[in-house]
Design brief:
This protein is an alpha+beta fold. It is built from six helices and twelve strands.
Length: 351
């Protein structure tokens, strides 16, 4: 009996040493064997917890569900009015995507990647995920971190990890920046332009420009602002619960919005009157029509030019006095006879 206990303890020590080491090959092989056991154990404990809740804590659950039911009735009335408004839009534009529910999946935490680190976790992997792409994790209704597929495992990096990075907007003027993990309840937003005014207490939300999160997902609140060489840095307190990661909403496609598949040609409104564009089938008739139009326009232009240029474009004759003026003395004392001759010739030239 003692030898069995000693061997089990030795095996556990060996496993802990191997998992804490930085050898990825050994850790990946061990995770492939250990993760299915952890998933089965977690499913079993969840089933036991559900049965205990259903039989032992029925009174508490009934009271809690009554309060939630009242709140959901209020939200239902508001959503019903909102859906009626959307239905009128869908009747006119049936090509709109009604909801981005296809791009949201549920992922649950299996375990931590390392025993001495609480910022990296291993998650259950939904179908359709690809490697070398970051996916957004939402905890409740706030940002929980990002996820990435590596070695057929879904790794989650919480907001306390330095590998967690995504685009954010700060304040009412939407100052852009990149949020990075710093500590347990703190993140750092870098690369904020200097001309934006940021102060303590400003809210931080996701920008949605990096295709990781939807827009306007709450991240945290600004606690301190500093200035570095060419940009501002904001320290924020995150909203999520880093120490209790359990269930996350994984965003597989952040671009799936209401008007993603919008097609203006599929509207039910009557189309506007547009002049028909000629096709290639009636090239002969087009060439004939164009030739007639082109043939008529130059004739009109030529006749118009001839009517106008009979007086304007014909150069007047040079008066004879210019040739005779070479023999005459300089024009210091012009004679009256010369002026009469100029007037007579001018009248003759303008005939």
């Amino acid at each position: 009996m003692k030898t069995r206990v000693v061997t089990i303890v030795i095996l556990l020590l060996i496993l802990t040493v191997l998992l804490t080491r930085n050898n990825e090959r050994i850790s990946n092989t061990l995770l492939h064997f250990i993760n299915p056991l952890k998933q089965n154990y977690r499913a079993l404990t969840q089933e036991i917890e559900d049965t205990s809740q259903s039989y032992i804590f029925q009174q508490q659950s009934i009271e809690r569900l009554k309060k939630e039911n009242v709140l959901l009735h209020k939200l239902l009335l508001d959503q019903a009015h909102y859906l009626q408004q959307l239905q009128s839009i869908y009747d006119v534009l049936p090509s709109l995507e009604k909801s981005p529910i296809k791009s949201i999946a549920i992922s649950e935490t299996i375990s931590y990647v390392k025993l001495n680190s609480f910022s990296q976790i291993i998650l259950t992997q939904p179908q359709g995920l690809v490697s070398k792409k970051l996916y957004g994790l939402i905890q409740g209704n706030v940002v929980g971190g990002v996820a990435e597929v590596k070695n057929n495992q879904l790794y989650g990096y919480l907001t306390s990890d330095k590998k967690c990075r995504f685009g954010v907007f700060i304040g009412k003027k939407n100052a852009p920046g990149i949020a990075m993990g710093e500590s347990t309840h703190e993140m750092v937003v870098k690369f904020i332009p200097k001309w934006y005014e940021i102060k303590e207490g400003d809210s931080v939300v996701t920008s949605g420009l990096d295709n990781i999160f939807f827009t306007q997902v709450p991240v945290g609140i600004v606690t301190k602002v500093t200035i570095q060489s060419s940009y501002k840095v904001a320290y924020i307190k995150s909203y999520n619960d880093v120490l209790h990661p359990k269930t996350f909403f994984l965003i597989s496609d952040a671009k799936n919005t209401l008007a993603t598949y919008y097609d203006a040609n599929k509207t039910k409104k009557p189309p506007l009157e547009v002049h028909s564009i000629p096709t290639m089938e009636n090239n002969q008739t087009q060439e004939e029509n164009l030739s007639t139009i082109i043939a008529k326009k130059p004739l009109l232009r030529e006749s118009h030019q001839i009517d106008q240029t009979q007086v304007d474009l014909v150069e007047p004759r040079v008066p004879l006095e210019r040739h005779l003026s070479k023999k005459v003395k300089p024009r210091k004392k012009p004679s009256t006879k010369k002026r009469k001759k100029v007037e007579r010739f001018d009248t003759l030239d303008l005939f």
